[in-house]
Amino acid sequence: xxxxxxxxxxxxxxxxxxxxxxxxxxxxxxxxxxxxxxxxxxxxxxxxxxxxxxxxxxxxxxxxxxxxxxxxxxxxxxxxxxxxxxxxxxxxxxxxxxxxxxxxxxxxxxxxxxxxxxxxxxxxxxxxxxxxxxxxxxxxxxxxxxxxxxxxxxxxxxxxxxxxxxxxxxxxxxxxxxxxxxxxxxxxxxxxxxxxxxxxxxxxxxxxxxxxxxxxxxxxxxxxxxxxxxxxxxxxxxxxxxxxxxxxxxxxxxxxxxxxxxxxxxxxxxxxxxxxxxxxxxxxxxxxxxxxxxxxxxxxxxxxxxxxxxxxx
Length: 313
Prior knowledge:
single chain, 11 strands, 313 residues, alpha/beta, globular
């Protein structure tokens, strides 16, 4: 078969997640990195510089408390707080352990124990479960609630932790460095063939996925972030790739709101799996048929597939 010549996309080289975010702040500090809706449906916008600063405050607090090199778990819905925790740990000497929020309690306890987590960040829906089962998680020293407003023993407020970090020595956290080939992200399988097992990823794995992935497939200016963050596909491609490209990540607040959020945020790209694509297709076809525009729609499909793709990059 004849070899086809093609050019790669140009991608800025980087060697760590810390360097990746530093470059983003240098080149696009004032650009909006993340958009999300609060409970009152108000849209919040956070710039790259603000994201970077908040990771420093959160990291400073964790480092000051002796957790700068520990395994840190996180369970909850897609949220800005989840992303902030993720980036903070990736920049530290610690290991990040994302946990599927849909797992039954005993499976959650297994993942947190097997991964040797010292801290767990969590959403409100999991608070009672943790409070009533602390004896099943003997290695966990602190629980950080994204939605908590006060501190209660070992259950602390996420917002207060960041406020505490503002008063800490940020330099300690900023000087932390990891071996790029050591464990950085520990992702557990779905457990369809038995008990969930941890997949070990190094920072080098993450950096390589972002850098080489963007060379062969680019992204654009605005992303609607839909897939669960505990999935590697969304955590790496949906988040890290978008951040290195200096895109704006719009957080989808619920599966039922996907179509509304597509209209609200008007994204230029979205990462999906086949089940989501099928759902979109089914709803689109249903609306087209109900509006009596099926013939015109089919003609537009034929016209669109006849367009010659752009080869120059």
